[in-house]
Amino acid sequence: MRIVLVGPPGAGKGTQAQFIASHLSIPKISTGDIFRANVSGGTDLGRKAKEYMDRGDLVPDEITIAMVRDRLAEDDAQGGFLLDGFPRNVPQAETLKKILDEFGVRLDIVLELVVDEDEVVRRLSGRRTCTKCEKIWHVDFDDKQDDICDDCGGRLFQRDDDKEEVVRHRLEVYKEQTEPIVQFYGDEGILVRIDATGPVDEVTARALDALRRSE
Ligand code: AP5
Ligand code: ZN
């Protein structure tokens, strides 16, 4: 399947993407993860992206789109993929359509994770990510007493853009630039909204159910 996950910062896209992609044996393509890996690796791309990410702004389309085009052309993405964090504005959605047209394929479904703003702020303020296996944790909901990953023993870190003022700006950017793609995919007839509140495994079950129905 070819899937896009959309939703505000902190909706649980990364969390759900891990489970859905492994359940369907398709690659998870997260533009945020790719940018962060480039920032920590000190690459040219990372240096270009960092100033935008630190402010909570979108990285310019020409940088982001070229990166996604290359990733989608890789062998493991030919049988399907799950995109997390892309597209994030209407020009990116239109370009994705053109790229997939060139490949002779199309998206099957766009899943919108719906969650209110207070919950998003709560989730992001307690988020920790594993430096080694990239698993996402939450200090309260996962009852983390230390900063060690229970899965792999790696050290957990807090993202720079999870500071409160940056989170608020990311939410504004989402409303202004990303929400219009919900309408775009609604018009295409492939948008499915799911309630992203409640325990992680319940949200996963709702997501997998929506994917089965769309087949
Ligand atoms: P990106 O990494 O994509 O960030 P985001 O969209 O803001 O989303 P988040 O990763 O913050 O949240 P999430 O929905 O994945 O939530 P998570 O699962 O972690 O982008 C970062 C930056 O990169 C952007 O600001 C931009 O600069 C740049 N960028 C990326 N893509 C771009 C693009 N296409 N174009 C231009 N620029 C781009 O969950 C959050 C927390 O909640 C975790 O602690 C988790 O454990 C917890 N949690 C999750 N689900 C639940 C649940 N059901 N109940 C309780 N807690 C939960
Ligand atoms: Zn880990």
From TrEMBL:
PROSITE patterns: ADENYLATE_KINASE. ATP binds at residues 10-15, 127, 198. It catalyses: AMP + ATP = 2 ADP. AMP binds at residues 31, 36, 57-59, 85-88, 92, 159, 170. It is found in: Cytoplasm. Keywords: ATP-binding, Cytoplasm, Kinase, Metal-binding, Nucleotide biosynthesis, Nucleotide-binding, Transferase, Zinc. It comes from Actinomadura sediminis. Residues 30-59 are annotated as: NMP. The keyword Metal-binding applies. Residues 127-161 form the Adenylate kinase active site lid domain. Pathway: Purine metabolism; AMP biosynthesis via salvage pathway; AMP from ADP: step 1/1. Its main location: cytoplasm. Consists of three domains, a large central CORE domain and two small peripheral domains, NMPbind and LID, which undergo movements during catalysis. The LID domain closes over the site of phosphoryl transfer upon ATP binding. Assembling and dissambling the active center during each catalytic cycle provides an effective means to prevent ATP hydrolysis. Some bacteria have evolved a zinc-coordinating structure that stabilizes the LID domain. Pfam families: ADK, ADK_lid. Belongs to the adenylate kinase family. This is Adenylate kinase. Zn(2+) binds at residues 130, 133, 149, 152.
